[in-house]
Specification:
With 254 residues, the chain is α/β, with parallel strands linked by helices. The protein is 32% helix and 30% strand. Strand 4 and strand 5 form a beta hairpin.
């Protein structure tokens, strides 16, 4: 079996309740190694809730099963899922004054690899990732997301992904707030991160990032459910027609 055909990530009958309300209503999804998937839907459909629940958001009541490489993730804490190879790029990254970007990245890389990373080795890897995303070296000494523009925060998310090399990356509206130049750079980083043995799920409202990161599969999420899946052309159709023509009664793959 080729890596293209290998199921890397899957969730089964995933249900999520937030403050007593069911937001995600029985999602089944599988993603093969070497592929890029997009999850599209309008505001309030539950996309971000789904992404956070897959990563183990502690405030959510989650039922169902989550697997990475066939290993169960649903009983693991978020940090344990990260060490196993899952990654979540946040829609709204949090500022951490007092912690430099370099310190944060080295700590994250140490946790991911399970060993202390020598300073020289870490610096070389970090600067290579900086160059790939057109980030100035002075960025390393700044406090994490403190006073960062939206574009800088999103570049830092992708920088983390390039360094950590997760097997499955969830990117929650990475394109939000980016100008066209930043979007191109971030898209380049996303494409660089996907190889034959890993995969990415891009959560987005719009087609524009998908013009640069062409997905293998597009899923449509409405009212807590996956209602349709198809190829990259489905994103273009959504851009033209919106979401109103899709309801649970139209569900199914094209």
């Amino acid at each position: 079996m080729s890596s293209k055909e290998t199921v890397l990530f899957a969730c089964r009958d995933l249900r999520v309740r937030v403050d007593g309300k069911e937001i995600v209503k029985g999602v089944n999804l599988q993603i093969e190694a070497g592929t890029k998937h997009a999850l599209m839907g309008p505001n309030g459909s539950g996309k971000s809730t789904l992404a956070a629940a897959l990563m183990g958001h502690p405030a959510y009541e989650v039922a169902g099963e989550i697997y990475l490489r066939g290993e169960p993730m649903h009983e693991l804490a978020p940090d344990a899922r990260a060490r196993q190879g899952m990654f979540l790029g946040f829609q709204y990254p949090v500022a951490v004054p007092g912690v430099t970007v370099a310190s944060f990245l080295r700590a994250a890389l140490t946790a991911r690899r399970g060993r202390e990373i020598p300073v020289r080795e870490f610096r070389q890897e970090m600067l290579e990732a900086f160059a790939a995303l057109e980030i100035k070296q002075g960025f390393a000494g700044r406090y994490l997301n403190d006073g960062f523009s939206g574009g800088e925060k999103k570049r830092l998310e992708i920088l983390q992904m390039l360094l950590l090399k997760p097997e499955f990356a969830l990117l929650d509206e990475t394109d939000s707030g980016l100008d066209i130049d930043a979007l191109k750079v971030v898209s380049t980083g996303v494409k660089r991160s996907v190889g034959p043995d890993n995969a990415v799920l891009l959560v987005t409202h719009y087609q524009r990032i998908l013009q640069y990161v062409v997905p293998d599969v597009v899923h449509v999420f409405l009212d807590g459910n996956l209602v349709r899946s198809g190829g990259a052309d489905l994103a273009a159709e959504l851009e033209t027609r919106g979401y109103d023509w899709l309801t649970p009664s139209t569900a199914g793959a094209r």
